[in-house]
Amino acid sequence: MKHFYINSVINSIALTAGPDQPGTWLFSCGDRWLLLTPPRLQRLAILLGIRDRRIAPLVTAVRRESPWAAEFSRRLGLVEPEPVVAALRPRCDGLHETHSDDVSLPCPDCRRREAEEARQAPTPPVLRDRERDREVRNRLAETDPCLFHNGELSPNWKYNASRRLELDWDAAARRVLMGARYRQVARELGCSVGILHREVHKRKYWEDN
After folding, report:
1. Strands 25-28 and 12-16: what pairing?
2. Strand duo 148-149 + 152-153: pairing
3. Cut 0.70: pTM above it
C-alpha cells in the first residue's frame, strides 16, 4: 500500500503507507507535495478530465496501491477494485493471485521467462549475418554444387572423407601385441604407421608388448 502526493504541476510521488497517518504536506526536492485524497483527485478529474495524461496514470496507480482504492473509485464513478483475486494466467494457464486491474497481464513467472528469452534472442547484427550466410550458401549451391555433401557445405568432402579413419583400433592393437609388425598391420588397415603407433599407445595394455 502507498500514499500518493502531488505537486503544483500534478507530478506525483508515492510513499509506503505506514501505521501512522500520512501528513497533509510533504517537502522534498525543493517542492511542496500535497497528499492526494479521494476528494482532491475527484476535483482534478472534473477540472481536467479523467483521461487527461496527468490524471489517468494517477487513477491507475491509486486504484492499484492506495489504501483508499475503493473510495477513489467511488468518487470517480468507477467500479470498486478487488485488491487481490485468483485468476487464470493468460499465458501459462495456471492460477495466480493478482490485483483485479492486472488480471489480463502476464504473471511474474511468464514475465521473467519472456525477459530471459529476450536476453538470449539473437541480436540484429547476428540475424543479418545469418541472412547473408544463407544467401551465399544458396548461391554456392547453384554455381558449385560439388561443394555440398548431404546438403551441408563441405569443401573437398571427398578428400576429407578419405582421411577420416574409422577403424577397429582395438583389433589392430591386439595384432601388434601378438607380435605383428607395425608396418604390416598399417598396410592391412590402409593407414600410416604413425597413426597406428599413436592409437596402439592410447590403449592401457600396450606396455605388455
Report:
1. unpaired
2. antiparallel
3. no
